[in-house]
Input
Amino acid sequence: MSTVLQTELHRHLDVSLRPSTLLELAQERGLEAQSTSLDAFLDKLLIREPMKDLAAVLGSFQICQKVLDRPEVLERVAREVCEDMYAEGTLRAELRYSPAFVSEFHPSLSWDDILAAFESGIRQATAKLPGFRAGLLCIISRDYGAEGAEKTVDFFLKNQSRFIGLDLAGNETDFPGSIFRPAFQRAKKAGAKITIHAGESTGPDTIWYAIEDLGADRIGHGVSATQDPQLMTVLRDRKICLEMCPTSNWLTRVVPSFEAHPLPQVLRAGVPVCINTDDPTLFATTLPSETRICTDLMGLTQAEIASCRSHGFAASFL
Ligand SMILES: [Zn+2]
Output
C-alpha cells in the first residue's frame, strides 16, 4: 500500500515570503519605516477582502518583487518557505516562480543566479527536514508576451534537469494561449511536464486550449471547467488534475463566495482536484486553513479531503 503524503502543487515561491522576513527586508531597503510594527505592516500588505482590481493590490505584489534583490535573500526565502510548508504538514512541495518577474526590478540579478539561489535554499531546508522534498516549476509570464516566452523556454530547456516542469501564468484575457503555442510545443517535444493557469478569469475554452494545444498535464485553477460537461469528462478520463486555490479565487472575485466554489462538484464528478494556497503571504492563508475552508464552508468530508490529498500526490511532477 502506498502512503499518501501531504502535497502542495500550486504555490508561488515569490509570494510565499514569511511576513516577518518581508518586513525586515523592506525596512533594510528603506521601503518601509523602521518604526512600522508587523501588525501595521500586515494591515497595509494583506489582501483580506475581494479586491477591486489588480491595480489596487499591485503595491503588495511589488514589495515582494522588490525585496528579492540578491542571491542570499532568494536563498533565505526559499529555505524559509520550505520550513513553513513543513510546519504545515506538507512533505511534497512544488514551488513555482517566473524568472522574468523575479528579475524585473533587478537587472543585475541573472536568471542563472536566481535559479542557483532558490535551489540552494531548498537544498539547505531539505537537509534539515526529514521526509521533505521540493521541486521548482519555471513560469512563463503571459504579460511578457511571445518574446518573453521564447526566452523563458530557452532558459527552461537549458536547465531542464533542475526544474520539475513548466507553467504559464498571468493575464489570461489580454494574452491568450495561442501566443505561447510555439514555446510550449518546444517544451513538450523535449519531454517537459506542463501545468497551465487556465479557466481562472476566463471560460472553459482556455482550459481546452491548454490541454489540446499547450500540452497541459495539469491545470492551475480551472474554476470554469464545470461549465462544460464534455470538458469535465475529458479531465476525468485523462486524469488531468485541477490545482484549485479557494481563498485566491474568492479574493480575486473568480467566485462570489466559498460556498459557490466548484471544488466539491469537480471532486464528486470524479475529476482529480487538489487544494492549494497560490499566494499565501498576500492572501494570509496556509494549507491547513484552505483545508478548513473546504470542510467548514464548502462541505467536504474528511474522506473527500483525503481524496484531494491523494489526487495531489498522484499528480505531482516530483
Ligand atoms: Zn497561481
User: Anything to note?
Assistant: Residues 10, 12, 169, 197, 220, 278 surround zinc ion (CB under 6 Å). The radius of gyration is 18 Å. The chain is about 45% helix and 15% strand.
